[in-house]
Amino acid sequence: MTPPAPSRTGARCTPRRSLAVCGAVALTLSVAGCGGAAADDAKPEKRSFALAGRTLTIDSRNSDLVLVPADVREVQVTRWFDGWSVFGTVDRPTWSMHDGTLSLRVECGGLISNCAARHEIRVPRGVEVRASESNGSVRASGFSARLRLSSNNGDVSVHGSSGPLGLRTHNGGIDATGNTARRISAESANGDVRVSAARTPDRVTARTENGDITLTVPDTSYRVTAAGRNGGVSVDVPRADRSRHVLDAHSANGGITVRAGDGPSR
């Protein structure tokens, strides 16, 4: 199994003796003390946005996202950004809200550059969230409303949520643990999928083209479909063809494990 590539927002440079040689350009460039960007070390910036309606759509590029429900009236965003560029400029990140869509942009210009960004988004309780990230991870916890989260290049994880979950990533893993959602859909093109349910789900659908799938569910009967083209399949839960609880797992290149764990069966 080929492991997923890490998320990145720019080229990295590696020190060599007292100088760092950063990439190949029209001429040989030596940069002293060239290092990576670190969003956690940056000064946080805050802004609030009014939300009309009960659905928040997030369209983000080149940032890690952290989503949390909160007792707030508006959507509250905190961002951390750090970056540098050689033979170019690093544009300041932008944020805006229009018709219920929060747009977050981080662009790292220059022939050689390195940027890192993270946004924490506090969402009014009960609001459905649809978040799409082009290059970065997406994390959420504690939501009662529906979540639809996706990343083109990064991990997607959800913990302690009770609303329906739709999770997708093109290049990264999916980790959904401690959730009481009745319906969970988790799909990765290149990465492991791990779902651990704290309450018996009505339906779990898990897909990956390249990775392992692990489903841990309360000990009760399930209608199970598990298939892998290139990997072992282990199902260790009671099976019943007429059960209203459905587990559906498919991997094109990886193993599948379905097992019973702790948690209420209803």
How does this structure look, described?
The chain is mostly beta strands. The chain has 2 domains: 36-56 and 68-127, no CATH class; 137-266, no CATH class. It contains no helices and 24 strands. The chain has strands at residues 15-16, 19-21, 30-31, 45-49, 55-61, 64-70, 75-86, 94-98, 101-105, 112-124, 128-133, 138-141, 147-151, 156-159, 165-169, 174-179, 183-188, 193-197, 203-208, 213-218, 223-228, 233-236, 246-251, 256-261. An 11-stranded mixed sheet has the order 4-7-10-6-12-14-16-18-20-24-22, with no helix packed on it. A 10-stranded mixed sheet has the order 8-9-5-11-13-15-17-19-23-21, with no helix packed on it. Strands 1-2-3 form a 3-stranded antiparallel sheet, with no helix packed on it. Strand 2 and strand 3 form a beta hairpin. It is globular, with a radius of gyration of 21 Å. The two termini are 36 Å apart.
